[in-house]
Amino acid sequence: MAVTKTAPVENNDTQPAILVENLSKTYGSGSSAVHALKDASMQVLPGEVVGLLGPSGSGKTTLLQCLGAIIDPSGGRITLGGDLLFENGWQYSDRRTLRRDRIGFIFQRPYLIPFMDATENIAFLPMLQGKSNKQAYARAAELLEMLDITERGGARIEQLSGGEQQRVAIARALANRPPIVLADEPTAPLDSHRAMSVMKLLHKMAAKSGTAIIVVTHDENIIPVFKRLYRLRDGVLHEEEGEGRPFDYLNDEQ
Amino acid sequence: MISLAYRDVSNSFGRYLLTGIGLGLLIGVTLTMAGVFRGMVDDGKALLRSAGADIWVVQQNTLGPFAEPSSLPDDIYRGILALEGVSQATNVAYLTLEVSHGSRSVRVMLEGIDADSNRLPLTAGRPVSRSHYELVADERSGFRVGDRIPIHRHEYEVVGLTRGMRSPSGDPMLFLPLKDAQEIQFLKDNDALFRDRRQLQENPRLNPPGNPALLDAVEESLFSNHRVNAVLVQLLPGTNPWQVADEIEKWLRLTAYPRDEMEEILIGQLIAMASKQIGMFLVILTIVSAAIVALTIYSMTQTKLKEIAVLKLIGTRNALISRMILLEAIGLGMIGFLTGKLAVTYWAPLFPKHVVLLPEDTFRALLITLVICVLASIAGIRAALRVPPGSAIGG
Ligand SMILES: Nc1ncnc2c1ncn2[C@@H]1O[C@H](COP(=O)(O)OP(=O)(O)OP(=O)(O)O)[C@@H](O)[C@H]1O
Ligand SMILES: [Mg+2]
User: What is the pTM of this model?
Assistant: First the structure.
């Protein structure tokens, strides 16, 4: 077992951005109970992009949703950037603000707001933080550019293709420059070229801003880019060494 | 900041507008009902206004002349005139009948009143000036100046028009000389007259040979009428009507109602049943409209719960979500109210009954609509705030 037990670290630089200790999550109770997570532990350092693998139904989404303070864990401990988030219940009453400011969540499906256009879906997040409309739209434009969907910015959500919607959702997750990004199969609806450029974007963010990123994926093309991986099996996380292939090489291959 | 309510509404504006218009028609019906109710009360008062009497004198112990029949000798006004404080006493006769003009027939109320005391505000023509066969009609009868209206044995010429003169049951009024009204009220058509006259002539006791004067006298007393339905009394300024009414009751053995009491009889007794009925309808309609408005707004929120969960997921504060629901509800209410107001303004004149749209009723409707919208949105907001953010990504 490759469970990482981490002692408390004084130095902020090496303090894990995400620290999960003995996390468990049970859906339902009695005979119909599903033990999605049993004893999951992991840590992700600032600036690190970590892959999360595991067969369908193994609990990957469940783990991310616990970390994102979307569903309640059943036991264990979550610490984000040195702040204790969960231990015997939530330690934060205002988890909505936490999600807004500190966690960029890319869901398995886009879940965009249907009554706003693509740009507004992105710009809405900085606005929630109290940024001016000008700043918010500038940030949205920047992200649309990075994700290569600038020309679709004014489109209604239902007019976007699945891949375009997903890229808007990725842009939304990054809009507030969160220190943590939780990405649940972000590249599933994208073609391999776009998938790779999204991975590149995430790595660039990690390197530039010290963002800690967990990426759930099934994509065989993408798995080689991670330096470090976790595999979820029977509710337990196992750490693995990754290839950590550089992007230029991958790009050349296409 | 992006306005959630505005974006959401403009995304499905057609549906939103249609819902609002639907509510508006309901609000319009409710407003109409209120207007009909007001109209009934107004009709009751219109007659009192037009009569302009301080005291109504009627047959002893009756609620006449509208709620109960009342008959008085037409010379009793002299006795009333003799009382202190009385400036004028006028005989009046009322009767409701159906009159035809061309192919149309209208139910009207006739008021017979002494021509010289006729002080009606006219919208066209002139007051009645001859002592026979002229009348002033209310516009609602559909008659025009110059029309000739046959009533029983005679034709009456319409010489003037009034506006808003209605009987307590909403029929248009016709004003004509008292003598004509008395004749119409108590006399018969030509055939009946002919039959009666023949009967008299064939009766040897009333038509003894050699004494034609007796038959004339009998006919005179039988075919003329010296009774009226009420006496309208006007007082000198500063006179207490209750005191004069007491005097009339005591000395002349009649019943006298000061104007306020007469109004009470008209509103309270005559149209009480009808107005209570309408009042009940109004209450039920208001409750039903309120329930539908509330349900519409509530279900509008219910269909948005998924988006609301996503909004929470990305960190939207409750205040912003609540504001969206509240604003959409108020917007819907305003569309509904404006549609209702517009609808009632257009369709009210089509009603056969007099529909009175008071500004205070409109204001009350606006207030009730807003209160309902706010209450309904509170229910919607509660549902929205309860929804867990995780529910957006179930499965
Ligand atoms: N809300 C829920 N209620 C009950 N059981 C659930 C719920 N969500 C997930 N599960 C169960 O928990 C287990 C883990 O589900 P989860 O969605 O985390 O898997 P996953 O690894 O993300 O799968 P996939 O790769 O298909 O997305 C599954 O057996 C699933 O059926
Ligand atoms: Mg999943």
Answer: 0.78
